[in-house]
Design goal:
Family: Belongs to the SEC15 family.
Protein name: Exocyst complex component
Largest sheet: 2 strands, antiparallel
Radius of gyration: 70 Å
Keywords: Coiled coil, Exocytosis, Transport
CATH superfamily of one domain: Dsl1p vesicle tethering complex, Tip20p subunit, domain D
Shape: rod-shaped
Structural class: mainly alpha
InterPro entries: EXOC6/Sec15, EXOC6/Sec15_C, EXOC6/Sec15_C_dom1, EXOC6_Sec15_N, EXOC6PINT-1/Sec15/Tip20_C_dom2
Order of helices and strands: HHHHHHHHHHHHHHEHHEHHHHHHHHHHHH
Distance between the termini: 211 Å
Number of helices: 28
Number of strands: 2
Organism: Macaca mulatta
Helix content: over 70%
CATH topology of one domain: Methane Monooxygenase Hydroxylase, Chain G, domain 1
CATH class of one domain: Mainly Alpha
Length: about 800
């Protein structure tokens, strides 16, 4: 029973569960019914559930049927009404279809027109948009076209400006277009192209400037020469310390239009053609020859591109290289003046260009850079001039070189360059110039002295007399009173040498012009150079003539006379120098001329040469002496050689009439002394081992002839027996032996007033030794053997006493 109750209770629960599931199925959305159905299948009573579900379906069918039955009449009425409406709807449909067909037919043209209008509106809108865009693009294209034209015509700086406007103003407005991007990408290439082209123009300019520097420098130096000539005309005097032409007036600063539209000016290499200008026209300004626009353009272009420093460094580097090339002189520069001129023209041209660049650009070159280049140029130029000028042996070339250096220095000084070192170097060249002058005048003096006839100048008319006096300052009242023909005391080389000294002074003065030296400095330079000419060149020339082997006594006498007159003319040379330098000789530190000393030295050398020459002539005559020292015959006349010698001396001293008295007297005394000494040596020479009294008598006759010559006064001015004193040693020696007065000699020896004071015991002993045993060889004394033996004993006794005197004298 309980079991039945339990089954019934379970059945009720199952029924309730099925009821719940059915309600959920009815109320739940179809998409969510899956879990509900799963709960049915999860249970064990799904058969009963299906039964329950069938029962529920049947209930719903019955309810539907009831409802349908309830509304069936209304449904039928509705169907009837609907059928009626369908007919009306069909009619309406037909009417609408017909109306639509008519409307479509009528509106077809309108639709076409509207389509056309739509297309026109679209095109109009597109055209308007295109015009707007083109209005934005046209300035870009125009600027680009302008850029291309400027590039084509090589107007690079305007092209760079156009490119800048294009990049920063126009392209940003249309940057989204493809062609603009191409332009933007091409801009750096265009900038590089402009840089390269402008740099190429600059290189062409630099190359052209290098080639034409000498033309530029030549023009600048012509301007300086013209200005100096103008100053000379205005001042009517040498331009020493004259006012310099101001730098402002030295050149015309001209402005170059950077954006010039002229292709010719854009393509100009830098040098304008001035070759066809007439010589008599005004010389163009040095800067007028040069078109600097390539430099300015390139500078502006690189400045705009932010590469100014690169450009400055490149320009300076290239110009330094060109400076080194310009400053390298040609190896044969010293041969001609044109070599120096071309060298200077190139240097001047270089610095004229740099100076103009300095003053027409801002910072491309600065003063420090210019000064550095100038210091280098100055040192190299001075070194080159020192080297090459040392090769110059022509004083005219050295003088022309000096004038060229002065013009070179004046030209550069106009442009503000310091040139003191050049003038200092000119003082060095002045010394070299003096040396070349001295060499030249050495040749001139040599020719004058070699061609001179060394005889007084004869004149046969007043005109000839005045001509000589005009050439040489000479006054002699006695000579003026003499009738023609007459003779000057000097030979032709005196006026010639005097005039050549004046020519030398003029040559020295020429070099001092335009050196900005004071009159005192010029005077000092001329005097020092003239002193060198006198003391070295002329003195050497005179000495060479005097020392010539074949020179005669007549020439030497004439040289003494000539130098005496030249010595007297030195005061006139002093006055000549004073007149041309306006420096009085009394001025402090004024150098005196040494001409007096020079001519005195030459005269003294000539005098010494006369003495030497006379002695040599005497020696030549003495070589003819042929004494028979063993003769026993007593002669009665002087030897022939001595007679000839005396005759020669008389004729020689007769030529000495124009010599100063002391010179003639000294020459005569020197000749007599030399003759006496030579005769003494002849008597005492070792080769004469023995001599006889007869030979001594002959020798005595010759000495008497000499004494007679001395007493005759061959040269005026000697006191009574002065000249005879030259032979006093011989006279006393010969008297001692011929008179055989040994007792007196031995008794009075050593007394101040002894008769044979000049007889030396050594000389007497030597001669006495030669007379020993001569009687054995002489037949004339053969019969007087005893007397001879006595005399021989006497000789021995005297010889012994003489030896005693000699030994006592030495002790």
């Amino acid at each position: 029973m309980e079991r039945g109750k339990m089954a019934e209770a379970e059945s009720l629960e199952t029924a309730a569960e099925h009821e719940r599931i059915l309600r959920e199925i009815e109320s739940t959305d179809t998409a969510c019914i899956g879990p509900t159905l799963r709960s049915v299948y999860d249970g064990e009573e799904h058969g009963r559930f299906m039964e329950k579900l069938e029962t529920r379906i049947r209930n719903h069918d019955r309810e539907i049927e009831k409802m349908c039955n309830f509304h069936y009449q209304g449904f039928v009425d509705s169907i009837t009404e609907l059928l009626k409406v369908r007919g009306e709807a069909q009619k309406l449909k037909n009417q609408v279809t017909d109306t639509n067909r008519k409307l479509q037919h009528e509106g077809k043209e309108l639709v076409i027109a509207m389509e056309e209008l739509k297309q026109c509106r679209l095109q109009q809108r597109n055209i308007s948009a295109t015009v707007d865009k083109l209005m934005l693009c046209l300035p870009v294209l125009e600027m680009y076209s302008k850029l291309r034209d400027q590039m084509k015509t090589k107007r690079h700086y305007p092209a760079l400006k156009t490119l800048e406007h294009l990049e920063h103003t126009y392209l940003p407005q249309v940057s989204h277009y493809r062609f603009c991007k191409v332009m933007v990408d091409n801009i750096p290439k265009l900038r590089e192209e402009i840089k390269d082209v402008s740099m190429s123009d600059l290189k062409d300019f630099l190359e052209s400037i290098r080639k034409h520097s000498d033309k530029i420098g030549e023009t600048a130096m012509k301007q300086a020469q013209q200005q100096r000539n103008l100053d000379n005309i205005v001042l009517q005097q040498p331009r020493i310390g004259s006012k310099r032409k101001s730098k402002k007036d030295a050149y015309i600063i001209f402005d170059t239009e950077i954006e010039s539209t002229s292709p010719k000016s854009e393509q100009d290499s830098g040098i304008l053609d001035v070759e066809d200008e007439e010589d008599d026209e005004e010389v163009p300004g040095a800067q007028d020859l040069v078109d600097f626009s390539p430099v300015y353009r390139c500078l502006h272009i690189y400045s705009v591109l932010g590469a100014r420093e690169t450009f400055e460094n490149y320009y300076r580097k290239q110009r330094r290289k060109q400076a080194r090339l310009v400053l390298q002189p040609p190896s044969n520069m010293h041969e001609t003046l044109d070599g120096y001129r071309k060298y200077f023209n190139q240097i001047v041209g270089f610095f004229v260009v740099e100076d103009h660049i300095l003053h027409t650009t801002q910072g491309l070159v600065n003063r420090a850079y210019i000064d550095e280049l100038w210091e280098m140029a100055l040192s190299k130029t001075i070194a080159a001039l020192r080297t090459h000028s040392s090769y110059c042996s022509d004083p005219n070339l050295v003088l022309d070189l000096k004038n060229l250096i002065v013009l070179f220095a004046d030209t550069l000084q106009v442009y503000g360059f310091p040139v003191n070192q050049l003038f200092d170097m000119l003082l060095e060249i002045r010394d070299q110039y003096s040396e070349t002058l001295l060499k030249k005048w050495a040749g001139i003096f040599r020719n004058i002295l070699d061609s001179d006839n060394y005889s007084p100048i004869p004149v046969t008319s007043e005109e000839m007399y005045k001509k000589v006096v005009g050439q040489f300052p000479f006054q002699d009242i006695e000579l003026e009173k003499q009738p023609f023909p007459k003779k000057f005391p000097f030979s032709e080389f005196v006026p010639k040498v005097y005039n050549q000294i004046k020519e030398f002074i003029y040559a020295c003065l020429k070099f001092s012009e335009d050196l900005h030296l004071s009159s005192t400095e010029i005077d000092d330079m001329i005097r020092k150079s003239t002193n060198l000419l006198l003391t070295r060149t002329l003195s050497n020339s005179l000495q060479n003539v005097i020392k010539r082997k074949n020179i005669g006594l007549t020439e030497l006498v004439q040289i003494i006379i000539n130098t005496t007159h030249l010595e007297k003319s030195c005061k006139y040379l002093e006055e000549f120098i004073t007149n041309i330098t306006n420096v009085l000789p009394e001025t402090v530190h004024t150098t005196k001329l040494y001409g007096t000393t020079t001519f005195k030295d030459a005269r003294h050398a000539a005098e010494e040469e006369i003495y030497t020459n006379l002695n040599q002539k005497i020696d030549q005559f003495l070589q003819l002496a042929d004494y028979d020292w063993m003769t026993g015959d007593l002669g009665n006349k002087a030897s022939d050689y001595l007679v000839d010698l005396i005759a020669f001396l008389r004729s020689t001293f007769a030529v000495f009439t124009h010599l100063p008295g002391k010179v003639a007297q000294t020459a005569c005394m020197s000749a007599c002394k030399h003759l006496a000494t030579s005769l003494m040596q002849l008597l005492l020479e070792a080769e004469v081992r023995q001599l006889t009294l007869g030979a001594l008598q002959q020798f005595n006759l010759d000495v008497r002839e000499c004494e007679q010559f001395a007493r005759s006064g061959p040269v005026p001015g000697f006191q009574e027996d002065t000249l005879q004193l030259a032979f006093i040693d011989l006279r006393q020696l010969l008297d001692l032996f011929i008179q055989w007065d040994w007792s007196t000699y031995l008794a009075d020896y050593g007394q101040p007033n002894c008769k044979y004071l000049r007889v030396n015991p050594v000389t007497a002993l030597t001669l006495l030794e030669k007379m020993k045993d001569t009687s054995r060889k002489n037949n004339m004394f053969a019969q007087f053997r005893k007397n001879e033996r006595d005399k021989q004993k006497l000789i021995d006794t005297v010889a012994k006493q003489l030896r005693g005197l000699i030994s006592s004298h030495h002790s």
